[in-house]
Structures are given as structure tokens and as C-alpha cells.
Design brief:
about 450 residues; 8 strands; 15 helices; alpha/beta; about 10% strand; 8-stranded mixed β-sheet; single chain; disordered C terminus
């Protein structure tokens, strides 16, 4: 009777939890911007930097600490993942950039810190666990640890730069049409308005930089100011001397201008935003569908990416825009607010949480630890979220992204090209042989005719 009573009580508690809206976290999709890096533009003096665009020690620390905090929240507290790596439940993707790959490694070291990695079986002869080269290996200090300090390596998936439709659709290498889209945007009335709004900043920035400016002062415009601010932010985060006082009015104005430049210069129109997020959304929904249908084992996805990736999603979901920053600037308001946030900073993170309550699934968005509403809801029902994303996705990504010439170059398999070239060469060789034979036959015919003429003369 006691066993039956306990079983009945357990069933009742479970039923009560489900009926009362007990929420269970099922999937986390986390996208981060790489950590602090060196400058990528040359408009400002960068002689103190040895490596342009590479992840700095500060950037490594940022992502490591981010990984540690995510481990605390989602492994220790929410128990979404086991504290040991399971390749069936975790998927990590990075762009093919040194700084994003190193950022992913740094984050994963925090997520699965030393001490969580695999060990050799106790009965395994350690002298066998060596590579087949002649060397005196010192493995005794390792003990049973597969790697020193029981380090846990985690696979990071990467695509070629010009084939990364998921995380680099915004780049000219991947989507050639983006180049002329941006060129058109620089001729628009919107851009003329933006340039006119900030025209007083250009000479101020040039004067403040002095000899640190590496281009003529009269060449400083909106685009150049974006490059300048990008370098100044990289310097600031890595502890280098400020070239412009970060507490000055000029700095505050340039920070707003930088937000607008980041959003406008990369994806000026709504059509651009929808195009560049299409493949990202397709990948996100693929993982979520797997969880909702019970067919996918993945519980954690990390995208190690760039500021553009996060800014695109925030803009597409209506949570940020260059227009809101421009309007606030014209009103004399330069501070960041939740409805018009700064563009993604070094190590910024955007997280989608997929939770289950009963038979229903809900999505929550967190950006830099703040919950942002999607479609006006903090917890949007998954079917509604899915419909929202699918409505924005372009029907034919390839057609919209590539001009015809580049479609042929990119899409045709290499074997097809070589086969066609081989056929052409074959025909050319055959034609050359036939031509040589015709010429030789012609010479022989003329020679025979001359011989016959000589015979006739002798007769």
C-alpha cells in the first residue's frame, strides 16, 4: 500500500507541475561576437599593433569568462547539459576567421573547463597511447588524463569564407549582389541625410586625432569616421591610450554615428536584412524543429560570429535600426536605451532559449542579458516564432545573392568544368590533326601533279 501510495503521489506531482505551467528548458542557441581584436582599418595610426584583426589576450579572456558563466547557468543551475562533453547534444559553428575560431575555443574552455575531459581506462597500457614515431615520450605526469589537466576538446565546424551562407551571407565573397546593393545605398536620399547630419563631426574628428590620422583631413567623411571609430574602440578595449577623450561630447556623438554606420553600411534596407538572415534563420529553425518534434538530440548550439550577425538578427526582429539612432541623435539624445541599443560590442552574446510547458514550446530572446520581446511577447509561442522567421526568409537565396556569371562559376561542380574543358580540348586537337592531314595531302597532291607534268613533257 505504501509503494502504491508513493507512486500515486509521484504521478500527481508530475501532473500538477505540467498543469501548472512547469517550464523545462530544452534547447539553447547562443550567438556571440568574437572578443576584442586588433584594428582592421588603416585610417588611424596602428603602429602599436603587431597583428591586425587578430584576437587579443583581452578577447580570449572575455570569451573564456562568458563560457564560464554560461556553464554556471546552463550546466550547474539549469542542468540543460551534462558537465562532460556529449557530441550528440552540442554543435559549434564558427566563421573561417582566426578571431572567431579562437573565440570559440576560448568560450568552450570556459563551458567545459579543465578537469572535465576524458581519461584513459585504468587497465589500458599507457605505453600504447603514443604516436608511431621514434621518440622518448614522457607520459607519466599525465596519469590517466587523455590531455594535460584533463582538457576537453570540442569540435568547431567551419565553412569556406565564400560558401558560408549561414554566418557570412552579408559578405561580398558569399553574396556578390551585396556589393551593388551597398553602392546603391550610398547614392540614396537616406544616406545624403545621414552625411549631412554628421558633417560637423568630420573636421572635429580630424582635428582631435591630429598626427594619428593617416589620411588627409579633407578626406574624412561618414565612412571614414566609421573606420576611425572602429579602431578607437579596439584601442580602448585593449587598454591603449585614447586618441579622443572618451568622456567628451565628440566621443558620444561619434559612438552614435558608429551605431548608424554599422547598421546602414552593412544592410541599408529591409530587403538586405531579410536576405542576409535567411540562411541563419533556416539553420536556427532546423535545430528548433528537431527539438520540438523529438527527432533532434541537440541541446546546445553556439555560433561564433561577428557584430554584423547579431546586429542583423536584432534589426530583422525590429529590436534595433539605424533610423532609431538617427532620430535620437537629431533630438540630441546620445545615450543607449533598450529600444535602441548599441550595436554588438566585443563578446556580446545573443541567446534563444526554447522551453517546453506541457505540450507547448516557447522562445525567449536574451541580448547582453536583457530579455527582448519578439512580436510583443517575452515568451513567444514557437509556432508564432517560426512563422515570423519564415515570412522574412527570401524564397530563392541564390537568385537574390548571385549575378548570373557568378552563379555559373560557384554552382557548377569542378568535375563538370573539367569534363567540358577536356571535350573542348579534344575537339581542338582532332581539328588540328585533320587540318595537318589536309595540308599534307594538298602538298602531296601538288607534288604528284608536278611529277606527272614532267613525265608528260618527257613523252
Amino acid at each position: 500500500m505504501e509503494l502504491k501510495g508513493l507512486l500515486g503521489l509521484t504521478i500527481a506531482v508530475v501532473a500538477l507541475l505540467v498543469s501548472s505551467g512547469h517550464c523545462q528548458l530544452k534547447l539553447v542557441i547562443e550567438m556571440n561576437r568574437h572578443g576584442a581584436r586588433g584594428p582592421i582599418y588603416e585610417a588611424v595610426d596602428h603602429s602599436s599593433w603587431e597583428k591586425m584583426g587578430e584576437l587579443t589576450p583581452v578577447g580570449m579572456r572575455q570569451l573564456y569568462l562568458l563560457g564560464s558563466e554560461l556553464s554556471k547557468r546552463y550546466i550547474e543551475e539549469k542542468r540543460l547539459l551534462e558537465d562532460v562533453f556529449d557530441p550528440n547534444t552540442i554543435f559549434v559553428r564558427s566563421t573561417a576567421s582566426n578571431r572567431t575560431i579562437q573565440s570559440a575555443v576560448s568560450l568552450l574552455m570556459g563551458l567545459f573547463p579543465p578537469g572535465t575531459g576524458p581519461e584513459l581506462p585504468e587497465s589500458y597500457p599507457q605505453e600504447r597511447a603514443v604516436p608511431p614515431i621514434k621518440a622518448d615520450f614522457d607520459y607519466k605526469d599525465l596519469g590517466l588524463d587523455a590531455l594535460e589537466n584533463q582538457f576537453q576538446p570540442v569540435p568547431i565546424h567551419v565553412s569556406k569564407l565564400d560558401m558560408d551562407y549561414i554566418l557570412r551571407a552579408w559578405s561580398d565573397e558569399t553574396c556578390p549582389s551585396g556589393k551593388w546593393r551597398r553602392a546603391q545605398a550610398l547614392q540614396s536620399d537616406d544616406f545624403k541625410d545621414i552625411e549631412a547630419t554628421f558633417k560637423d563631426i568630420y573636421p572635429q574628428a580630424a582635428k582631435a586625432l591630429g598626427t594619428n590620422l593617416k589620411i588627409p583631413a579633407d578626406k574624412v567623411d561618414f565612412v571614414v569616421c566609421h573606420m576611425i571609430m572602429d579602431t578607437l574602440l579596439a584601442n580602448k578595449k585593449s587598454g591603449r591610450p585614447d586618441m579622443i577623450d572618451t568622456k567628451s561630447e565628440l566621443w558620444r556623438r561619434m559612438r552614435v554615428m558608429y551605431n548608424i554606420a554599422q547598421l546602414y553600411l552593412e544592410f541599408p534596407t529591409r530587403e538586405d536584412v531579410n536576405l542576409f538572415t535567411t540562411k541563419t534563420y533556416h539553420d536556427i529553425l532546423k535545430f528548433m524543429e528537431g527539438t520540438v518534434t523529438g527527432q533532434g538530440p541537440t541541446k546546445w548550439v553556439t555560433y561564433s560570429a561577428h557584430d554584423v550577425n547579431i546586429d542583423l538578427i536584432m534589426t530583422q526582429l525590429g529590436l534595433n535600426s539605424w533610423k532609431c539612432h538617427l532620430e535620437r541623435y537629431k533630438e540630441g539624445k546620445f545615450d543607449q536605451i533598450p529600444s535602441c541599443p548599441n550595436t554588438a560590442k566585443f563578446a556580446s552574446t545573443l541567446i534563444f532559449e526554447l522551453e517546453q510547458t506541457g505540450n507547448d514550446f516557447f522562445v525567449t530572446l536574451r541580448y547582453e542579458d536583457e530579455v527582448y520581446k519578439i512580436g510583443g511577447e517575452e515568451k513567444i509561442p514557437y509556432p508564432k516564432f517560426k512563422e515570423l522567421l519564415q515570412k522574412s526568409m527570401v524564397a530563392d537565396f541564390e537568385k537574390e545573392c548571385f549575378v548570373q556569371r557568378e552563379i555559373q562559376f560557384v554552382e557548377q561542380p569542378a568535375s563538370w568544368n573539367w569534363t567540358k574543358i577536356s571535350i573542348i580540348i579534344g575537339f581542338a586537337v582532332l581539328a588540328l590533326i585533320l587540318l595537318i592531314m589536309v595540308v599534307m595531302s594538298s602538298f602531296k597532291l601538288k607534288e604528284l601533279q608536278r611529277e606527272n607534268a614532267s613525265i608528260y613533257r618527257l613523252i
